[in-house]
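for the recovery benchmark. tokens below, seq after
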């Protein structure tokens, strides 16, 4: 259905994306063919898909009919609506749904990532993309972790935040760690990543454990002492002389790979 008027209310779900991520309106936004397809395949009910004629045609040819309204707009109209020139030519909006509980998110899981204080949305997106690519079964969020459904996180994750089970622990920076007892009771070996040279080698920390939870913290401060005390072991990634840390998404990716390797 062609829409030529930028003020058409049917486009309100994707309006002013440069000013708001739409989380305050209870929405999830996806951009580009691949991410939109993952939104359509997710548990989030899609309101609409908006895009150029060629982008909509390509989407249907590649992924099939999405089962929601599809609105055609030209490039100038879409730019006026979203607030910037959207080169991908396709954007979709969906309702947020009730979050999973921790118990629901870890059901059947063998490898889990836990994030404390990771507040950068691009790092969150990168972490989810790395986790999905390396067989991590779920991501759990501790205090201070940013919203993974923020538009930038969805985009950077290539839509994997929409596919990977995720749940948030209750509590603040000094209390959320009490919830880790649930993971321990479910048989998870809890590993906290730290650059501390006294920590054990990452490979050694995971060896022989069938269920592992890998915990990373914010860049700079890292994990809180409260969090590390709640784990079974502190592990480090060996670093070259003169260096002391990695980007949190990079460090997590190395840990996820080492976990994969330990299962071979």
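predicted aa per position
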């Amino acid at each position: 259905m062609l829409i030529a008027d930028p003020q058409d209310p049917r486009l309100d779900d994707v309006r002013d994306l440069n000013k708001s991520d739409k989380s305050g309106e209870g929405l999830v936004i996806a951009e580009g063919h691949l991410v939109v397809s993952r939104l359509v395949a997710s548990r989030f009910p899609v309101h609409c898909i908006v895009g150029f004629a060629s982008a909509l045609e390509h989407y249907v040819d590649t992924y099939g009919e999405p089962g929601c309204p599809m609105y055609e707009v030209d490039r100038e109209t879409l730019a006026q609506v979203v607030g910037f020139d959207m080169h991908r030519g396709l954007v979709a909006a969906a309702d947020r749904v009730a979050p999973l509980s921790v118990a629901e998110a870890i059901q059947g899981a063998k490898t889990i990532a836990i994030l404390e204080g990771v507040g950068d949305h691009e790092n969150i997106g990168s972490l989810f993309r790395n986790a999905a690519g390396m067989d991590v079964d779920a991501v759990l969020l501790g205090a201070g972790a940013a919203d993974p459904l923020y538009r930038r996180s969805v985009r950077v994750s290539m839509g994997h935040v929409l596919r990977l089970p995720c749940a948030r622990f209750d509590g603040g920076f000094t209390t959320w760690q009490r919830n880790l007892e649930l993971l321990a009771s479910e048989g998870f070996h809890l590993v906290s990543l730290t650059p501390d040279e006294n920590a054990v080698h990452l490979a050694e920390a995971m060896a022989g454990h069938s269920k592992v939870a890998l915990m990373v913290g914010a860049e700079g401060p890292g994990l809180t002492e409260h969090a590390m005390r709640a784990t079974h072991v502190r592990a480090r990634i060996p670093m070259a002389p003169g260096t002391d840390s990695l980007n949190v998404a990079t460090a997590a990716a190395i840990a996820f790979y080492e976990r994969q390797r330990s299962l071979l």
